[in-house]
Amino acid sequence: EKGAYEHYMLKEIDEQPAVMRALQQVYLNADGTVEIDDEMLTAIKNSERIYVVAAGTSYHAGLVGRELFEKIAQVPTEVHVASEFAYNPPLLAEKPFFIFLSQSGETADSREVLKRVNEWNYPSLTITNVPNSTLSREASYTMLLHAGPEIAVASTKAYTAQVAVEAILAKAIGQMKGLQKAIEFDLKKELTLVANAMQIMVDEKYNMEMLADEYLKTTRNAFYIGRGIDYDVAIEAALKLKEISYIQTEGFASGELKHGTIALIEEGTPVIAIITNELTAAHTRSNVQEVIARGANVIRIVMDSLSQDQDQIVIPEVHPLLTPLVSIIPAQLLAYYASKNRGYDVDKPRNLAKSVTVE
Ligand code: M6R
Questions:
Q1: DSSP 3-state assignment of 126?
Q2: How far is CA 267 from CA 51, 199, 226, 311, 330, in A?
Q3: pTM of this prediction?
Q4: How is residue 28 annotated by DSSP?
Q5: Do residues 225 and 272 lie in contact, with contact meaning Cβ atoms separated by under 8 Å?
Q6: Whose CA is nearest to atom 14 of ligand 1?
Q7: Distances in whole angstroms, Cα of residue 223 to Cα of each of 62, 137, 192, 267, 270
Q8: Closest ligand 1 atom to Cα of 54
Q9: Contact by Cβ (8 Å): 292, 299
Q10: pLDDT computed for residue 28 by the predictor
Q11: Separation CA 134–CA 104 (nearest Å)
């Protein structure tokens, strides 16, 4: 039930802090260690490489997962679009472990890949919001997102739940391997900080509506840019905006713009920059200057410690590998208000279904 909300999407955006708390309850012990099936962790530990397979927003959550699995658990990770993998699989490691990310657990493209993985007899995990869904039944193991039903076609809380579950899983794998970095990754503390930061961002609705009105009301195209984990978020942010506002939006690696795409920047083109990484903040800021010089209207989403006076959206400080959980929220809200201001059906955008059960 959407209750007092005009749209499910806004309700689901608002639920994200509570989902973080629910995940802490389900997966974290009082002492901060992680409670996950040992047999599954052993299977991952014994594998050489993780292959994440997913579509759409779930694929984007997988991109952030790669950062977590490689940096916290030290497992080399590849992320694949399900429809591409199915008929053109890459050369696999000798001992692969597959992770299927899917809110619905019913996406046909991912099911097709899992069918093959089962024929090859490789171990797999489905991370899904729907218990007993097809992908969950057909994989060797399941982890649930505990996000509650997601009704709006544009996925919001499932994305952040997927990233949080990946963080929990990365810690558990690293913990089992005895890695110091994983043991010190204090998810009880970090996810509490995230939930509080998310709350601050979802309370920024009025400002996001104003920004959407000023920058996105009439434009035909827009860009999100970022580097590293901010680039992963940029792609998801772009999908969110395009699928419900019909503004042609692309996410780009900021440094790559000047290799071609910058030709598209005109007077008034909206460019939204995500800056949460200390190492690359100055580089992205100089890319921002390059697009401003060509007439772009820039919105900056910046982590507190890196923020400057003119930045319009400042996100509270969280762990550097968990920033997507917070930086995506203003992007979700900008998409929501852009769609609403333009008079579209926010929850049911044209041409799209909530779960895509054909290949
Ligand atoms: O149910 P799934 O997570 O497998 O769905 C995958 C995509 O179809 C889905 O994320 C889609 O991209 C959303 N509409 C994005 O908001």
A1: strand
A2: 42, 35, 21, 20, 24
A3: 0.98
A4: B
A5: yes
A6: 154
A7: 21, 39, 31, 14, 6
A8: 4
A9: no
A10: 96
A11: 9
Which pLDDT score, from 0 to 100, does residue 2 have? 87
H or E element, residue 141:
strand 141-144
Active-site residue flag, 354: yes
Pull the structure tokens for residue 268: 């008034």
d(CA 65, CA 62): 5
Tokens read off for 148: 């509650």
Token pair recorded at residue 73:
């658990």
| Tokens describing residue 165 | 């579950």
CA angle 271, 20, 330 (to 5 degrees): 15
Q: Each residue of 94-128: b (16+ CB within 10 Å) or e?
A: eebbbbbbbbbbbbbbbbbbbeebeeeebbbbbbb
Give every residue of the chain whose pLDDT is below 50, as ranges. none
Taking CA atoms only, the protein residue closest to ligand 1 atom 7 is 56
ipTM of the shown complex: 0.98
Residues in Cβ contact with 66 at an 8 Å cutoff, skipping those fewer than 6 apart: 52, 77, 78, 79
Q: Which residue is closest in CA terms to ligand 1's atom 8?
A: 56
Residues in the chain: 359
The Å distance, Cα 272 to ligand 1 centre, comes to 23
- Which residues, including other chains, have CB under 8 Å from residue 260's CB and lie 6 or more apart? none
Contacts of 288 (CB under 8 A, 6+ apart): 225, 254, 271, 273, 298, 300
